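Researcher: Quick test of sequence recovery. Tokens follow.
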């Protein structure tokens, strides 16, 4: 049997081919999610007593904290430079 015959035997209609393709993508997604290297490294790096607590925070909490610090810095700069602009007018 040639390759074309095998393909038609495995997938007699396009629906079966799409179903198999989606099944493979889901399977690879599950395998990739279970073997996520970031999750494994976070489990191995348990925070010790001397840590500052930054390593046990979730990435979105770290991003939120970074944004708040950046926003506070921007507000301070606006207040600092606001007096210079109004005095020059």
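Model:
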């Amino acid at each position: 049997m040639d390759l074309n015959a095998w393909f038609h035997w495995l997938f007699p209609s396009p629906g079966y081919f799409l179903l198999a393709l989606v099944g493979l993508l889901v399977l690879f997604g599950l395998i990739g999610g279970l073997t996520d290297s970031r999750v494994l490294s976070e489990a191995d790096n348990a925070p010790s007593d001397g840590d500052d607590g930054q390593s046990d925070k979730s990435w979105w909490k770290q991003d939120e904290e970074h944004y708040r610090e950046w926003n506070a810095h921007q507000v301070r700069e606006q207040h600092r430079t606001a007096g210079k602009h109004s005095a020059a007018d």
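The mean pLDDT is 79.
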